[in-house]
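Researcher: Here's a chain I'd like modeled. Treat it as a single chain, no partners, no ligands.
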Amino acid sequence: MAVRGAAAFSSLLIPMGASAEYGLNMTEGATSLSHEVYGLHMTILWVCVVIGAVVFGAMFYSVFKHRKSKGAVAANFHESTFAEFAWTIVPILILVSMAIPATKTLLAMDDLSDSDMTIKVTGIQWKWKYDYLDEDISLVSNLAPEHAKASQRNSGIDVTKIENYLLEVDNPVVVPVGKKIRFLMTANDVIHSWWVPALGWKKDAIPGFVNEMWARIDKPGTYRGQCAELCGKGHGFMPIVVVAKSEADYKDWVAMKREEKAATLASADRAWTKDELMKKGQQVYTTTCMACHQANGQGLPGAFPALAGSPVVKGPVEGHIGVVMNGRQGTAMAAFAGLMSDVDIAAVITYERNAFGNDTGDVVQPSTIKAARK
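Model: Modeled as a single isolated chain. Structure tokens:
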């Protein structure tokens, strides 16, 4: 799996639209900031090329012109005030000429004034949570289910036939074009790093700390990235997908998300059948739980416990609910109370208690989860 993650990571270095296996340069990006960074990179690159050509050209010319076979005799001299000034002043001027545009770009990166909207990004092993602070909506972004299935050991799936393998999610972060978006980065477990090459920057997401950055995407499109900080077993399975839409399409998406939120809240108040919960629970398990506990519920020995025959799963329902909602201290088991709806938690617990040979017959209703939150 580490090899697959590395392959996906290397693919991020390829400029968008290129078909080559490897890229030899930075991507130009899709934001005004990324264009500045790319322009600065190219300017300094060519300055270095010129310096290298002059220095090595002079060196090779001297070696060739004054070689011993031509009877050259080394000159005997020392102390040159002009030379001392020249090789001190010229590098200073070159460095200053590079520092001025570099400083301008760095200051622009930190200029968060006049932002049009704010998105809080929270890194979680191994997913991302996005809170749209101006819209009162949030979403959790996981590795796409079909990619999660393919990444399982002995899955039998040919991953070379999966488009954007390990770089697809179930819930992309959607943003409007032409708007200055302020991103607040944090994490709730270990250090992650939010990196989308097309945006021209990456920022660490650190527990207990908030980093800030901004982006203004120029044109509609889909831009992919990954966690760029080694954050544990699922590091290579933590992609980022940013979908930039026109302002009208973005407003339609926000309206749709609000309707989904209202429908989810309403559905938590009705009684669900066992079949409904099992079907929903399997979907939630595939998206959220399978990466650690495996498709067959056997877990990964020494790392993640099996759910098949688990004393927690087959024990009192209250204990199972507590573990899913509050997590387990000192383990990779996250607290899902703030990441999943009442319906999702009820469904996945019902599924786990009746799948993998557990067959407890228990049915957990969303109303039970809602009551447990109080």
